Amino acid sequence: MEIDAWVWWLIGAVGLGIPLVLTAMPEFGMFAVGAVAAAVVAALGGGIVAQVLVFVLVSVALVAVVRPIAARHRAGQTHHRTGIDALKGRQAVVLERVDGSGGRIKLAGEVWSARTLDSDQSFEPGQQVDVVEIDGATAVVM
Q1: Per-residue pLDDT at 55
Q2: Cα 110 → chain centroid
Q3: What does the pLDDT read at residue 18?
Q4: What is the pLDDT of residue 80?
Q5: Residue 39 has what pLDDT?
Q6: Greatest CA separation found in the chain?
Q7: How far apart are CA 129 and CA 115, in angstroms?
């Protein structure tokens, strides 16, 4: 029993799809699409030279076009800060006097323990302060 060329191209496409899933390298997916295009050429009766040529052209075209677009998209994404990193640089309101030994602030809708960055400095209730860093469960403010 002889297997048609288009079936071999589809087997190759599946074979290229496996490392795509395992490694998350999109280039394998582009080669798999090239193999599917070659399978279409084979099913339409194209010769082996036409099949290989379509495979190479489609694969190279996808790599040449899609990779730069993906790189621009990835470079344009801004990094979203989460957790305590998102709290640094925010403003808070003093609830209880804050000095070098402690106090309380309202930060992002929650009550936090706080201390001043400069131990000689102090803030009274109602004042706005800037969060410089988070040290454990304590906001360091100035």
Answers
A1: 96
A2: 29
A3: 92
A4: 77
A5: 96
A6: 89
A7: 11
Q: How far apart are CA 74 and CA 100, in angstroms?
A: 43
* Dihedral (CA of 108, 110, 111, 114) sign: negative
* Residues of the chain under the 50 pLDDT cut: none
| Residue 109: both structure tokens together | 């809708």
Helices within 24-102 (DSSP H only): 26-43, 48-76
Q: Is 24 helix (H, G, I), strand (E, B) or coil?
A: coil
Q: Which helix (H) or strand (E) holds 141?
A: strand 138-141
Instruction: Look at residue 25 and give its three-state secondary structure.
Output: coil
Are 97 and 121 spatial neighbours (Cβ–Cβ below 8 Å)? no
Residue with tokens 């899933």: 21
d(CA 9, CA 55): 9
**Cut 0.70: pTM above it:** no
Amino acid letter, residue 57? L
pLDDT of residue 1: 66
